[in-house]
Every structure is written in C-alpha cells, then in structure tokens.
C-alpha cells in the first residue's frame, strides 16, 4: 500500500459549522493563515441545516396561522379552515438551506480556505486522517501547528425499546406531511419550540416532561407562565412523567398514516402519528479518537477547555457545542473569531477570548421568550436576598385589544428585571410576549455595558410599545 500523503497547514478546523466557519474565516480571511476546513456533512453545520435556520423559518410558518386567526378579531373576513401546504413550505425551506450551504462554501473559497469533505479522525497526536466523503473514500492526512475541534453535537435517542421509530430534531426537518397527533418527549428549548410550531398549526400535541414545568433552566416566571400558556392553548402537558419503556410501530407511513404506540414505564399508553425525542444533545466525538492526542473530556464526553478554548493538549483547541458551553450559534462563532484573533492576530490580541457572561438568548416558542443574565434564584444565591431587588410586570399587549377577554388571557406579556446591590445593577432580564426576540438584543447591549435600573429609567420610553414597560417599571 502506498504511504498516505500528509499535507501541512497553519490551521486545521475540524467541522464547518458555526464555530469552525467563524474561526477559519477569521484566521484565513483576516490574518492570511493557511487554513483547512474538514466537514463530514453539509456545510454550515447544525444551525444552517437542522437548527436555527429551518427552525425559525418553521416558526414563521406557524406564527402566520396565529396571525390569520388574529386578523378575524380585527374584522378581516378570514375563513375558519384555511388550507396550507406544508410540503411546499418544506421544499422552499430545503432550497433556501441548499443556497446557504453554497454561501458558506463561497465565503470560504473567497477567503482562501481549503475545504475537504470527509470525516476526520486523529491518527497521531497532531495528525488527522480524512476519509473522503465521495465514492473514492481516499484517505489523506493533514497536520498543522494549530488544530481546532469544532465538531458540534447530535441529538440523543434514549435506550428505549423501539426508540428508533421516533424522530429527533434532525428528523423533524425531514417531515413532509404533518402528523395529526404527536408526542414530544423533553422539556428543553428544542422540545418547547418544536411542540409550539406544530401546535400552532393545529396538530394535537402531547408533551411529556419529568417535572411540573418545562424550560427548567430558565427563570421560574418563564417556566410557570409558558407551561400554563401552552396548556391553555390546548397542548396536553403530561407532567411528572416517568418515561417510556417501549415504542411500537403499529403502521408505517407518512403524516397521519404513521401510527406509533408509546408504552410508559407506569403502564400508560398513547397512540400518536409521530414521536419526537428532544431529550438533549451529545458531543460528536465518538470516532475522533481524542485519546490519540490525549484530549481530556468530561464525563458527558464534552471536550474540556479553559477560558481561551485550549484543550489539555497544546496546539489543540475546541469550541462550540462540543465543549457544552452555552450551546448557541453566536457563541460558537464569537468564540471561533476570538480564537482566530488570539492565534493569528496582532500581539495585542494574544489574550483575546470570549466572555461567556451575559449571553442573551431567545426561545422561539409561542409567544417568544427572551432571557439574559441570572435567574432570580441564581441572583439570590450569588448576592443574597437582601441585596436583590426584583421588578415585574404582567399585561396584555395592545395587539390583543380586539380579542375577546377569554382569549386575551391566553396571551400574556411578562417581564422581570433583577437588580443587585445599592446601585441596582441589572443582573438578569427575563421577558416573554410578542416581539421579545427582537427586543432583547438592544437591552443585551445595555446589560453587557453594566446598566443599572436608573440607566433603564433614564431612557425615554417609546410609545406605544411593549418594550416601554422595561424603562418605566416601578
Ligand atoms: C433544533 C435546533 C434549533 C436551534 N436553534 C438555535 C437558535 O435559534 N439559536 C441559536 O443560537 N442556536 C440554536 N441552536 C444551536 C446551534 O445550532 C448550535 O449551538 C451551533 O450550531 C453549534 O455550532 P458548532 O460549530 O459548535 O457545531 P455545528 O454547527 O454542529 O457544526 C459541527 C460540524 O462538524 C461536522 N463534523 C462532526 N464531526 C466531524 C468529523 N469527525 N470530521 C469532520 N466534520 C465533522 C458536522 O457535520 C457539523 O457540520 C439550535 C440547535 C438545534 C438542534
């Protein structure tokens, strides 16, 4: 067998997702480092292909149904049963994603980054081998002084008998025909978002959660209001659920033609057309052979890094979902750019790193949720009860004025500002309601700059909006 050729780069990036792309572009595009991206799947990673982008498009698709319903209250003659073609929306969504895959690859090309499609694994401490994704399955080895692991993660399928008959969030984006009735297992933001979109277009939705509320990592106000809101609009939330022991495929097919029977550990049974496992994500490290360089991992398999994204091995770095740190696209991109700055930038950037404090995030539920900083229990624990002041408000946004009273109750807007110390520095902000996703970004800047409640109050309100409440709370 001919010896396998080894090519040398300044920077090898394993994974062309959010973090890998952000880092490679900074290293090559800004600083001219000879950079290679190795990507085993579709360019752009989770966010573009099976995450943020198709999710948000589907959220728009679903939100339109809610708006059409609202239009009736404003006097529009909207028929009761508006037909929609999910298949055609899905085809549009797929084509848009394909376009984005091309945009990613074009940008890499323009910035002088080499791309190889294939799966990477370590074969020596600083050498990776890539098996080409095409039919040749050619193996090429690459080495570099700096290697970044940005391989992301994948959804977990629990070890339940017949679990493979259900889908994960990846499979959700392959659905061509909507189920009539479906089950969502999980209480995190992905479960809440995907349950929300299908419920909003009339799919009978059953959520199975272990506790009494979902979004358990969020402020209690968010957990309680959102769980109650989902229940109020007809989502059946099965609380304190002990899990399933078996999934039976009663009938194979698409949409309403697929029938599954779920059998709970306590003997409870339910028949549905689809089952979504949204029980968490695991790092995509199984076949990387991290033991060869000796990169240390946590018990969950995540790559352990310090504040500069260094792993336990010199010259090998990790960021994004594979590290389990704030698993969000902009976090991975920002960490990647800072690493690029630190490794290849000017000397004053040699301590460049991402601050993981005060990262704003939005849940695209119905309605949206926005959050930044500490939850109330976290703030109380960190500063002490007597050092915390909490401002809250709950109201119905003007948009719902023409709605009947009963329906108005289903659409709360709620806000909480958590302040610490005598200067009332804002250490947490939690909001839910119409448009809060767009609202949060600007407040995020203020909080990142260290805003106090007085700073919030000193900003003249924009009237009439919901966000004006954030600068007028007493
Ligand atoms: C349903 C869903 C919705 C989401 N919504 C949002 C949202 O609204 N906002 C938000 O900020 N975040 C969202 N996220 C999270 C976001 O997608 C991730 O945090 C982000 O993509 C992580 O980027 P990354 O670079 O770490 O990994 P990824 O983007 O996953 O990229 C990793 C890449 O590495 C490749 N790879 C893996 N192993 C190898 C290997 N051995 N060799 C070569 N290539 C390899 C993979 O194919 C992949 O392309 C969502 C995620 C999901 C699942």
From TrEMBL:
EC annotation from Swiss-Prot or TrEMBL: 1.8.1.7
Cofactor dependency: FAD
A single GO cellular-component term on record: cytosol
Catalysed transformations (reactions): 2 glutathione + NADP(+) = glutathione disulfide + NADPH + H(+)
Active site, per annotation: 463
FAD/NAD(P)-binding domain sequence ranges: 9-336
Role this protein plays: Catalyzes the reduction of glutathione disulfide (GSSG) to reduced glutathione (GSH). Constitutes the major mechanism to maintain a high GSH:GSSG ratio in the cytosol.
The Pyridine nucleotide-disulphide oxidoreductase dimerisation domain, residue ranges: 359-473
Annotated keywords: Cytoplasm, Disulfide bond, FAD, Flavoprotein, NAD, NADP, Nucleotide-binding, Oxidoreductase, Redox-active center
Molecular function per GO: flavin adenine dinucleotide binding; glutathione-disulfide reductase (NADPH) activity; NADP binding
Protein family (similarity comment): Belongs to the class-I pyridine nucleotide-disulfide oxidoreductase family.
Top-rank taxon, per record: Eukaryota
Single biological process term from Gene Ontology: glutathione metabolic process
Location in the cell: Cytoplasm
UniProt-listed SUPFAM superfamilies: FAD/NAD(P)-binding domain (SSF51905), FAD/NAD-linked reductases, dimerisation (C-terminal) domain (SSF55424)
Record bears the keyword Repeat: no
Note accompanying the cofactor annotation: Binds 1 FAD per subunit.
Amino-acid positions noted as binding FAD in the UniProt annotation, renumbered to this chain: 56, 321
InterPro entries: FAD/NAD-bd_sf, FAD/NAD-binding_dom, FAD/NAD-linked_Rdtase_dimer_sf, Glutathione_Rdtase_euk/bac, GSHR/TRXR-like, Pyr_nuc-diS_OxRdtase, Pyr_nucl-diS_OxRdtase_dimer, Pyr_OxRdtase_I_AS
UniProt name for this protein: Glutathione reductase
Disulfide bonds: 47-52
């Amino acid at each position: 067998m001919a010896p396998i050729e080894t090519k040398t780069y300044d920077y090898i990036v394993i994974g062309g997702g959010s973090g890998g792309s952000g880092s490679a572009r900074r290293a090559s595009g800004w600083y001219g480092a000879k950079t290679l991206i190795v990507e085993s799947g579709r360019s752009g990673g989770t966010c573009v292909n099976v995450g943020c982008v198709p999710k948000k498009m589907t959220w728009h698709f679903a939100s339109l149904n809610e708006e059409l319903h609202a239009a009736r209250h404003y006097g529009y003659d909207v028929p009761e049963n508006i037909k929609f073609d999910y298949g055609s929306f899905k085809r549009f969504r797929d084509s848009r994603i394909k376009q984005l895959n091309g945009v990613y690859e074009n940008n890499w090309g323009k910035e002088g980054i080499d791309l190889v499609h294939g799966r990477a694994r370590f074969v020596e401490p600083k050498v990776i081998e890539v098996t080409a994704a095409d039919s040749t399955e050619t193996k090429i080895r690459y080495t570099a002084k700096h290697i970044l692991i940005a391989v992301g993660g994948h959804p977990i399928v629990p070890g339940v008998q017949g679990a493979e008959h259900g889908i994960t969030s990846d499979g959700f984006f392959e659905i061509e025909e909507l189920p009539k009735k479906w089950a969502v297992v999980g209480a995190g933001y992905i479960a809440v978002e995907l349950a929300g979109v299908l419920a909003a277009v009339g799919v009978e939705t059953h959520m199975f959660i272990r506790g009494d509320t979902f979004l358990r990592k969020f402020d209690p106000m968010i957990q309680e209001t959102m769980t109650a809101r989902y229940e109020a609009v007809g989502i059946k939330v099965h609380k304190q659920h002990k899990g399933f022991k078996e999934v039976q495929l009663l009938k194979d097919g698409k949409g309403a033609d697929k029938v599954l029977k779920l059998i709970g550990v306590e003997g409870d049974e339910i028949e549905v057309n689809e089952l979504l496992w949204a029980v968490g994500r695991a790092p995509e490290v199984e076949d990387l052979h991290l033991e060869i360089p000796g990169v240390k991992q946590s018990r969950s398999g995540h790559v352990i890094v310090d504040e500069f994204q260094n792993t336990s091995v010199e010259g090998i770095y990790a960021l994004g979902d594979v590290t389990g740190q704030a698993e969000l696209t902009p976090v991975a991109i920002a960490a990647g750019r800072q690493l690029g700055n630190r490794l290849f930038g000017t000397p004053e950037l040699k301590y460049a790193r991402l601050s993981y404090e005060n990262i704003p995030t939005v849940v695209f539920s119905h309605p949206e949720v926005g959050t930044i900083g500490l939850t109330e229990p976290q703030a109380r624990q960190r500063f002490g009860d007597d050092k915390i002041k909490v401002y809250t408000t709950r109201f119905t946004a003007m948009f719902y004025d023409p709605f009947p009273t009963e329906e108005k109750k289903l659409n709360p807007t709620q806000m909480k500002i958590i302040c610490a110390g005598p200067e009332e520095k804002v250490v947490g902000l939690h909001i839910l309601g119409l448009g809060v996703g767009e609202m949060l970004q600007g407040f995020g800047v203020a909080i990142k700059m260290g805003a106090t409640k007085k700073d919030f109050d000193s900003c003249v309100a924009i009237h009439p909006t919901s966000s004006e409440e954030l600068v007028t709370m007493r």
